[in-house]
Design a protein that fits this description.
Two copies of one chain form a homodimer. Chain A is α+β, with helices and mostly antiparallel strands and 239 residues long. Chain A is 45% helix and 21% strand. In chain A, strand 9 and strand 10 form a beta hairpin. Chain A binds a DNA duplex (30 and 30 nucleotides) through helix 8.
DNA sequence: CGCGGTGTTGAGACCTGTCAAGACGTGTGG
DNA sequence: CCACACGTCTTGACAGGTCTCAACACCGCG
């Protein structure tokens, strides 16, 4: 399922057959990960990166109090820790939310790409900058949007991101997070997360049951979220 | 004052004389910017990046309500919109908080660097990943830390960042933001920002008057903030 | 001298958190 | 097959943090 990864790239740029071959050749190994496993711990020295091929993962930072902030969600096609290539270690954990399939990409092969494929290097640099753009939008949510708006916003974002890789229905998608995990994305308590979801249901915007999210009124959801996808850089340009 | 930029890099990696020359050669022009000016607007097509040489700048996103979220603060030595090199446009504004001096770096010259200097490319890729790490820590602040802790955290972070470029005293630094701007960093109202600062003063942790921040009790401030600088990647490593 | 930006204070409202308890479904061991 | 533990979702009552609205002091500047 490296196709999801290629689809994500092709939404933003054109890559040559040689570049595609270089990407495919960068994966040294495929691995299966069970759900709810911390794959990478903050502080660990790293010499490979992880391409998510199937399932959902997350980046999370722990506080002393035991609370946790999920800083990003990952779906198939995402290079979950591409940034570890230059950072050499991460300051957050990487964990699986569902059973996952991942491709291991040794940093040495990424380094080779930076030596031999300047354009592909820029494409991957772009990808980490896209992650950062998503971070910034999350900061807006956490800082300025209400619990309701914040939640609506995430649902809108994931619709776009899943659509790119062909994993969205026209009216929704599979959303595997528990309310506890969702609350950790949004800086809320699980109790308030529950009440916020009920409010979204009450307003007729969504249905969420058995891990299936159905969006009943996308325009209204978009409006509540003040969602504008420009931060996802959906245009194909030479990077 | 490109020395600040070099100091910031040298804190994280070693660069060769040729690389330093390439960096210096990348700046095509020096410009003065007055305070409180929006230098770059969201959505604009960009073909150069901006190296901050003197003064403070910020990245900010506006909401329809007129509210604003500042997603990052920039001090001398920061490449404020290096990410525009691969993004081609930004989804946020870049604005000056004080009068600033900036160096203009045409994207064409950055592109040349990616063709000719793979290591330097990785260094700059690292720098944008460092920005993203700061974003993530900000998400933790916005999502999980109290107003008090959040504020303390920013003061701790800026102490480290300013110290790297030689702009911190042992007991503080010049902090030019108004309380309004500070509140926009922290997702608070200006009124509550004011009360939070008073509380920090009351606790004997800081003094803040005439744009001068004095840290009276760094260990206590660090503790209140749960500040751990590991996300700033202060180690010198080959990237 | 008046004005706008900045910092400060008070009172009350509202959003979100805390604590506690219970319902429900699933898996597991006796 | 049942009893039980556990995770997840839900609900209620109350507390607390932050927001809103309003007013005022101070200061630099035109």
């Amino acid at each position: 399922m490296i196709e999801a990864h290629l689809a994500k790239i092709r939404k933003r740029d054109v890559i040559s057959p040689e570049e595609e071959a270089a990407i495919r050749g960068a994966v040294s190994e495929i691995r299966e990960i069970p759900a709810d496993k911390v794959l990478i711990r903050a502080g660990q020295d790293l010499d490979n990166s992880t391409m998510l091929l199937d399932g959902w993962m997350a980046r999370a930072k722990d506080l002393r109090t035991g609370e946790r902030q999920i800083t990003e969600l990952h779906v198939p096609g995402d290079f979950v820790d591409l940034h570890s290539f230059t950072l050499k270690r991460l300051e957050h954990d990487i964990l699986s939310l569902t059973p996952c399939t991942v491709g291991i990409v040794p940093h040495e092969r990424l380094r080779k790409i930076t030596e031999d494929y300047p354009h592909l290097t820029r494409v991957y640099w772009f990808m980490t900058n896209l992650d950062a753009a998503i971070h910034r939008e999350r900061a807006v949510s956490l800082g300025r949007r209400s619990a309701l708006s914040r939640t609506a916003h995430l649902f809108c974002e994931m619709l776009v991101r899943l659509d790119i890789i062909g994993q969205a229905r026209s009216d929704g998608y599979e959303f595997p997070l528990t309310q506890q995990e969702l609350s950790e994305c949004h800086g809320l308590t699980a109790v308030h997360m529950n009440r916020t979801l009920q409010r979204l249901r009450q307003l007729g915007l969504i249905r969420l049951e058995d891990r299936q999210l159905t969006i009943l009124d996308l325009p209204a959801l978009t409006a509540v979220a003040e969602f504008n996808p420009s931060y996802l850089y959906l245009e194909q340009k030479s990077r």
